Amino acid sequence: MAKVFFISPPYVGLYGKLSRAAGRYFPLGLGYLAAYLRHYGRHQVLLFEPEAQNLSYAGLAKILKAEAPDVVGLTCSTPNFYNALKLARIIRVNCRAKIVLGGVHASAIPEFIIDAYSDLIDFVIVGEGEQTMLDLVGALEKGTGGEGIRGVVYKNGGKTIRNEIRPYIEDLDAIPNPARDLMPQNLFWPNLHNARYKNCLTIMTSRGCPYNCSFCAARIVSGRRYRAHSAGYVLAEMQMLKKTYGARQLLITDDTFTIDRARLEKICRGMIERKLNLAWLCFSQVNTVDKESLALMKKAGCYSIGFGLESCDREILKRMGKPIDPQIALKTVHDANALGLKTQAFYILGSPGETREQMRATIEFANKVNATLSFFNMLVPFPGTKDFDYFFAGVPLKEIEWENFVAVGEKCVLKNSLVPAREIEQMIARANANYYLNPKRMFALLRQIRTPYELSNYFKAGLALLEQFFSVVRPRRGYSAPADSRDRS
Question: pTM score > 0.90 for this model?
Answer without folding.
Answer: yes
